[in-house]
From TrEMBL:
One of its GO terms (molecular function) is sigma factor antagonist activity. Residues 319-384 form the Protein FecR C-terminal domain. Residues 185-277 form the FecR protein domain. InterPro entries: FecR, FecR_C, Ferrdict_sens_TM. The keyword Ribonucleoprotein does not apply. This is FecR family protein. Keywords: Membrane, Transmembrane, Transmembrane helix. It comes from Chitinophaga terrae (ex Kim and Jung 2007). It comes from the Bacteria. The chain crosses the membrane at residues 88-108. It holds the Pfam family FecR.
Length: 387
């Protein structure tokens, strides 16, 4: 994901060119980029047309007040802090220059209309993105609230659970007991967490999800239960197959990386590496190859090619959309920021492609989505009205 926001770098250079703030070194970098592709040059010339430059400058001036925005500093690959309005503006520039690599569908003629949206955004309450927060339920029913603090939690069988930097790591204690003690890790909306199981398997748990697992595995199969969404990097042990149960679906692996999403009315298993077998109700099963996904719903099972980059982007801190439905995107935003969505009037039908940092403030995300969908947003408490 290291090149995810390189496109913003060129938008940054173009913006500096517009404002006559570009250095000689930056001009050379921009020139090289323009010469690399004739489409870059054509888009650049269109952007630099007098009316587009004037519209961009007017838009920038209308929101150039840091106090009007939530104190969020989003960073692009330039390595410099960027004011929220500037990130939004550059996303629009990048969309126009790069044909939608960052956010498609931006229309410069709508900038005057967007000023009205900006005025509404300025009044929004501070709603922060998800953070490392979860609840751990121990074998005796005791609940432990987790954050980013340091510490050691101990289970009744002597298992040490190290808590550090938003992650848990299990270490088997000095016990010969074969009794399985189960823990439950639950993330709320606007929460996420990581853990390393006793066998070395790493799990990333997305917002509004849960994982039930034994604090140490016995002699047989390694089995866990998931709700919501999780990414698994399974430690290899051919003698102990690893199984993930999600409702009526069971995913069996030996050692591999895969994602399971079960938020809506389907269970989607995406294989990144290795091999998995997806079974339905303990009967029929299907083997996946890397780059494939299995979708299980009440209409049946569908095996097809997966968009691995898009599906696993959440683990790397990115909202990644590729020809996605507006409602699906808003559902993801709702989980991440712990808000509810209420629709008034027609729902935008435009498919959306783009990527946005998951650490961006909610106003920033809504502003970008407004650019590409034509929707207007109004926040009442923790409810987003889509108009």
């Amino acid at each position: 994901m290291e090149n995810k926001f390189n496109d913003l770098r060129y938008a940054d250079l173009i913006w500096k060119k517009i404002k006559n703030e570009i250095s000689n070194e930056e001009q050379a970098e921009l020139t090289a980029w323009l010469q690399a592709d004739v489409q870059h040059q054509e888009a650049y010339e269109q952007l630099m047309a007098r009316e587009n430059v004037r519209a961009a400058m007017e838009f920038q001036e209308s929101i150039d007040t840091q106090a009007d925005w939530e104190s969020v500093l989003a960073r692009a690959d330039t390595g410099r802090a960027m004011r929220p309005y500037r990130k939004v503006l550059l996303a629009g520039l990048a969309a126009a220059v790069l044909g939608g690599v960052v956010l498609v569908g931006y229309n410069w003629s709508r900038i005057t209309e967007e000023k009205k949206i900006t005025a509404e955004v300025k009044k929004l309450p501070v709603i922060r993105p998800a953070s490392n927060t979860a609840t751990l339920t121990l074998g005796n029913g005791k609940e432990v609230k987790l954050g980013s603090q340091l510490g050691v939690i101990q289970e009744t069988d002597g298992t040490d659970i190290n808590q550090q930097n938003g992650a848990l790591q299990y270490h088997k204690g000095a016990t010969n007991s074969e009794e399985l003690i189960y823990n439950l890790l639950t993330t709320p909306k606007a929460g996420q967490y990581q853990l390393t199981l006793e066998d070395g398997t790493r799990v990333w748990l997305n917002a509004a999800s849960s994982l039930r697992f034994p604090v140490h595995f016995g002699k047989g199969e390694r089995e866990v239960e998931l709700t919501g969404e999780g990414y698994f990097d399974v430690a290899q042990d051919p003698s102990k197959p690893f199984k993930v149960k999600v409702r009526e679906v069971e995913v069996q692996v030996l050692g591999t990386g895969f994602n399971i999403g079960a938020y809506e009315n389907e269970v989607k298993t995406t294989l990144v590496s290795g091999a998995v077998k997806v079974a339905l109700n303990g009967n029929h099963s299907w083997r996946l190859k890397p780059g494939q996904e299995a979708r299980v719903s009440n209409t049946g099972v569908n095996i097809g090619k997966a968009d691995v980059e898009k599906i696993t982007a959440w683990k790397d801190g990115v909202f990644f959309f590729r020809d996605d439905d507006f409602r699906d995107i808003m559902n993801e935003v709702a989980r991440w920021y712990d808000v509810s969505i209420r629709y008034e009037g027609n729902v935008p039908v435009k498919r959306i492609t783009g990527n946005i940092s998951r650490q961006a403030g909610l106003p920033q995300v809504l502003e970008m989505l407004s650019f590409v969908s034509g929707a207007r947003f109004k926040i009442n408490g923790r409810v987003i009205d889509v108009m």
